Amino acid sequence: MRVSRIALLLLLFTNFGFSASQLIVFERDNGIWVGNLDGSAPRKIAGGNLPEISSDGTRVAFTTDEPSKTSPIRHIAVVEIASGRTTVFKDLPSDNSFGPVWSPDNKSLLFSIYIEGDWQLAFVNADGSNFRIVKKAEKGNESCNVPAWAPDGKSFYCHTLDSIFQFALDGTLIKKWDIHSILENGDMNSNSRINVSPDGKSLIIDIDMDEEQDRENWDGPHLQSGYWIWLQEKQSG
User: Fold this and answer.
1) What CATH code is carried by the domain that includes residue 108?
2) Measured between alpha carbons, how far is 234 from 114 in angstroms, rounded to an integer?
3) Which of 43, 7, 6 lies closest to 25, judged by CA?
4) 121 burial type by CB count under 10 A (0-12 exposed, 13-18 middle, 19+ buried)
5) Are 147 and 156 in contact (CB under 8 A)?
6) Which residues form the domain of 163?
7) Which residue, of 145, 163, 184, 233, is most buried by count of CB atoms within 10 Å of its CB?
8) 199 phi/psi in degrees, rounded to 5
């Protein structure tokens, strides 16, 4: 029998990545930077946002942000850390793509792309070839957001505003979790992140809770508090 164990963790999430080569990648001043794991020797390697470093520490995938007077122009790009050589995937069937994530073998990427009036999840090789849609938006503008690879590279996780899914790369549904059945007042937003443990048995997910935050001398909108939930499945006798 499979059982689920859930724990609540209050975490501060910062958008940076780690690699096995002891490098970190992060955003600063509208650019992509890398540095040593201890924060030393930082240097800018590209302009853009939403960086993710490959597990071998040789390349960074990121989103370009190009000036436009109308709709956003964003492309997926890959920069080689050592040489600074950058490849921008401008042959994809949209000029609005973002959020690339590396496959475990560093040979391909998953990302979001705006096609047919909605956000779809797509696959592409790390050189920009072999583009295909892996998860189309459902009717009613319900897109699956922020993909995360399974450790074996054969499936991925994503989420809508109230559910988490695991899909095979051909779009076949493997599993679904309903957030409201786990946390009655929990919801997800389109930027909520999913992280998968190396053994593929645990997920950490960014969750919005229905709680108002009162700040002294704060005139802006009230924000929902950010939580993470830890979903772990294990075999039990």
Assistant:
1) 2.120.10.30
2) 37
3) 43
4) buried
5) yes
6) 14-182
7) 145
8) -90, 0
Q: For residue 148, is it within any domain?
A: yes
> Checking DSSP bridges between strand 16-18 and strand 23-28, what pairing results, if any?
antiparallel
* Sheet of 76-80, strands arranged across: 49-53, 59-63, 76-80, 86-88
* Burial grade of 178 (CB within 10 A; 0-12, 13-18, 19 or more): exposed
**Hey, what are 42's tokens?**
């930082």
CA atoms of 230 and 40, how far apart (whole Å) = 32
Is 23 among the domain residues?
A: yes
Closest CA to 124 of 61, 175, 34, 74: 61
Nearest Cα neighbor of 90 from 128, 49, 122 is 128
Residue 117 in 3-state DSSP?
A: coil
Domains identified in the chain, total number: 1
**Tens of pLDDT, residues 10-66:** 233 334 455 556 889 999 988 999 999 888 999 999 999 999 999 999 999 999 988
What pLDDT digit, counting tens, does each position of 87-104 carry? 999 999 999 999 999 999
Angle at 119 between CA 115 and CA 224, to 5 degrees: 160
The helix/strand count (H/E) of the chain reads as 1, 21
* Helix ranges, the chain (H): 179-182
Provide the whole-model pTM: 0.80
- Radius of gyration from C-alpha coordinates of the chain: 18
| Least confident range of 6-20, 108-122, 172-186 | 6-20
Assigned domain for 201 exists: no
